[in-house]
Amino acid sequence: MFEEPEWAEEAPVVADLGSVALRPRTTADSQIKGSKHRQLLATLRALEAASLPQQPPSLPGSDEEDEEEVVQRKKKLPKKVLFASTSPEVKKKRKKKRQKQGPPSSDSKEEEVEKKKCHKGALLGNDFAAEEKRKRKCQKQDPSNPAQPLDNVDQTGSKAWNSSAANDSTKPSPETPCSNPPHTLSRKQWRNRQKNKRRQKNKFRLPQAPEQAPATAAAEETEVPPAPSPDSHGARAEALRARMAQRLDGARFRYLNEQLYSGPSSAAQRLFQEDPEAFLLYHRGFQSQVKKWPLQPVDRIARDLHQRPASLVVADFGCGDCRLASSIRNPVHCFDLASLDPRVTVCDMAQVPLEDESVDVAVFCLSLMGTNIRDFLEEANRVLKPGGLLKVAEVSSRFGDVRTFLGAVTKLGFKVISKDLTNSHFFLFDFQKTGPPRVGPKAQLSGLKLQPCLYKRRHFSYISYF
Ligand SMILES: C[S@@+](CC[C@H](N)C(=O)[O-])C[C@H]1O[C@@H](n2cnc3c(N)ncnc32)[C@H](O)[C@@H]1O
């Protein structure tokens, strides 16, 4: 259909050539030529009769008009043979006619090329051509075939094929390997046919896909999926997903951390009671940060305690994962807002379930987080035995003025034993309990206001260090 105009242009020329060959001449010259023509026609018919059974199948025509063309082509073929043996005059005339048609030499050359291609195709892959023909035939026969509506174009081929095949018993079956179409088709026609074939092939593939799907799916089921290469889409997607998850965790960690520093401990307690997972997430974030430190304060405290009697009872306020309890031989009471370890007593360290003056050592390792630090230190004073040891380790940059802080602590019934400001990440202070707090509950202890310890958005580093 799509090539109809070209076919229509071509057909009259072919028909005209045929009529020239058959038309008797009326002039004297043409009488001689006419007799020669008759001779030639006789030869032509003989040749035609002889050559038809061996003639390879021509490509299918497009419609009924094409059948006429097939007849014309049959006539044309012997004429070419005829031209080879005809007189120079006739040759001239024929040449004129052919010049009207277009450049014959290039045609014949290209026909040769096409012929060679086709022959090569026959040698290499004519099974494919045969397969295409067979497919077309099947599709035509099968009314349920979804490709059927697209067969309009194909019918130009198969219909003409069938009709010509029906008319001509000498034609080989459609399974016959590639024919020699350039013998009977012009270059344009041959190209059109090729285009048709390609288009048909493309059209057939799409509707055939659903039919082939089950077989493909079955093959896929049995196939072992290839291991994803590092640059595969799956691996990249997985890496991206992991990175996004990591970023999300980081954002949640920063949020929780800020909550712990910016409100009273009661709020922090509620937060973790309502969302125990948040506590895990917070500690994952904390651990990923603190492990990068040159020295973890908890390890420093453990080292200190190793130099003291193992009989001393220790209370770890804000114990986290009980690293201190795991590092020393002393009996340790572990307190935290949530439990990461069976040794933990879950509570707000502003009120621990311990008797007054029951412990020898009270430890706050990076745990003075709420806005009610005074409550924590007063509770430590309560449970510590007289002369008991208070150890505080905090991120160094949280301190605006260390002396103010130390002064405030001493008002709560402690005296400073030692201070270590040498570490790059944290300050460490030792206090001894001197007695109960020396100030009333309403007294302002501004030195206990420490900066919140926040983290850089990207790297989770303590910004308070820089
Ligand atoms: C930064 S972590 C340090 C953990 C552990 N001390 C260490 O150094 O590995 C602070 C811990 O103190 C806990 N914490 C903060 N405020 C608390 C409170 N009011 N009562 C109990 N634990 C608290 C937190 O839940 C957290 O586990």
UniProtKB/TrEMBL annotation:
Residues 49-236 are annotated as: Disordered. It is an enzyme of class 2 (transferase). The keyword rRNA processing applies. Keywords: Chromatin regulator, Methyltransferase, Nucleus, Repressor, rRNA processing, S-adenosyl-L-methionine, Transcription, Transcription regulation, Transferase. Residues 141-183 have a biased composition (Polar residues). CDD domains: AdoMet_MTases (cd02440). InterPro entries: RRP8 (IPR007823), RRP8_N (IPR042036), SAM-dependent_MTases_sf (IPR029063), UbiE/COQ5_MeTrFase_CS (IPR023576). It holds the Pfam family Methyltransf_8. GO terms for biological process: cellular response to glucose starvation; methylation; rDNA heterochromatin formation; regulation of transcription by glucose; rRNA processing. Essential component of the eNoSC (energy-dependent nucleolar silencing) complex, a complex that mediates silencing of rDNA in response to intracellular energy status and acts by recruiting histone-modifying enzymes. The eNoSC complex is able to sense the energy status of cell: upon glucose starvation, elevation of NAD(+)/NADP(+) ratio activates SIRT1, leading to histone H3 deacetylation followed by dimethylation of H3 at 'Lys-9' (H3K9me2) by SUV39H1 and the formation of silent chromatin in the rDNA locus. In the complex, RRP8 binds to H3K9me2 and probably acts as a methyltransferase. This is Ribosomal RNA-processing protein 8. The gene is RRP8.
